[in-house]
Amino acid sequence: MKYRTIGTAPESRREVSVLALGAMLFGSRTDEKTSFAILDRYVEAGGNFIDTSDNYAFWVDGGQGGQSEELLGRWRRSRGVGDEIVIATKLGARPLAPGTSYIDNPEGLSAKVIRESAERSRERLGVDKLDLLYAHIDDPTVPQRETVEGFAELVAEGTVGLLGVSNQAMWRVERARAIAAAAGLPGYEVLQYAHSHLRPRLDVPDDMFPDGSLGHAGPELLGYLRAEPALTLVAYSPLLRGAYTHPDRLPADFDHPGTPPRLAALHEVARETGATVNQVVLAWQSGGELPIIPLAGGSSVAQLEENLAGADLELTADQRARLDAAH
Ligand SMILES: NC(=O)c1ccc[n+]([C@@H]2O[C@H](COP(=O)([O-])OP(=O)(O)OC[C@H]3O[C@@H](n4cnc5c(N)ncnc54)[C@H](OP(=O)(O)O)[C@@H]3O)[C@@H](O)[C@H]2O)c1
Questions:
Q1: Threshold 0.90, pTM exceeds
Q2: What pLDDT is attached to residue 211?
Q3: Which of 54, 172, 181, 243 has its CA 20 to 30 A from that of 297?
Q4: What's the CATH code of the domain at 145?
């Protein structure tokens, strides 16, 4: 396993494995025994960067979420896990009532929610300090200064280590970071966005984003990463939720002329290396010049084994150049 530093301040930065593990469906769709087996194997292989959220997985049972954090809390206790494992969680997108969602009824990013939801997450996880806490989605109803100060207070109190942000427009991320920097407060250092080798159309509106998707890492985000060495991209859904293995799962926004040449390049490199397409994607993301950490889910130890080997796969400069150039 290889490692990468997230964050910059000596007191909060962490060395994390270049493959992060998504625990989104642990404790709901993935049963406890399987989830524990995946977590144990991930740690045994040197993995130390696990991702969850206060709202996972509310859509499975129509509740408000929390099953994933609770399962991780039970796993931590039963294994005696301490500081060596970095558990990232998120707040802001928990539905305020059962039967609703983050689209129509999110908790949002007020100072009160930040304080109270972080406290609940610490309880469910059984930790004194959240290693990395993300704003899960934007909240345009709250002044950004309030959100920035709300997160900074928790860092100052020592109940949160690093701050991150997910699914927000880049201008909002930059504005929040500028507010924090001007006030001498800690700002977002980890960006969590959807990113894989295949690229979606970004102009397709949905319920959350009427002007087109903000959840995908597009050119603005990649340029921002290049310009700001303090930032890391944690790439969610790197395996397109299984679509490289099950092409019928490929979402409609990937149906465009750029997809076949990218897929062809992936298959060519997979043939050359003897690896699977999933492994080539993870190797391409984690071994490139930009600081990208793929955050893969999985519902079995066998899938995890494949993904672990992907993070260890070394691509040649020529293979990488062909993967980069395909469009
Ligand atoms: N910030 C956000 O808004 C956001 C959004 C989504 C996800 N996330 C985070 O990102 C993590 C990963 O997201 P994801 O589950 O959408 O992404 P993913 O890693 O692209 O997809 C995971 C799914 O792909 C399939 N899979 C995984 N490894 C495989 C393998 N080696 N071979 C074949 N199929 C494989 C499995 O599907 P089957 O189980 O059907 O076999 C698995 O459940 C989540 O757990 C969560 O922590 C964050």
A1: yes
A2: 85
A3: 172
A4: 3.20.20.100
